[in-house]
Design goal:
Blueprint lengths: L4 E6 L2 E6 H12 L12 H18 L22
Helix pairs in contact: 1-2
């Protein structure tokens, strides 16, 4: 399997992203979306990269009156069926 993998750095730690993760990140930057993917598919990586993007964007702003809140909602479900 030949997947498109890219890498970005968060505080000097490289985070590799697969093509579908980058696609979800890019779409989340265009509009508000809910990402629903299988366990272990990298939703947390997408959230970390989005938070990185938003924090860097906030640092570039001059006025705090333009401050925007970013939130992530995570549901944990039992995979054992009980």
């Amino acid at each position: 399997m030949n997947e498109n993998i890219s890498s970005v750095s968060v505080n000097g730690v490289p985070i590799k992203t697969r093509g579908y993760q980058q696609e979800m990140l890019d779409e989340s930057l265009r509009r508000n979306i809910i990402i629903a993917m299988d366990t272990g598919s990298g939703k947390t990586h997408i959230a970390v990269l989005r938070l990185k993007h938003e924090s860097e964007r906030e640092l570039e702003k001059v006025s705090f009156s333009q401050y925007k809140k970013v939130g992530f909602l995570t549901f944990l479900c039992s995979s054992r069926g009980f």
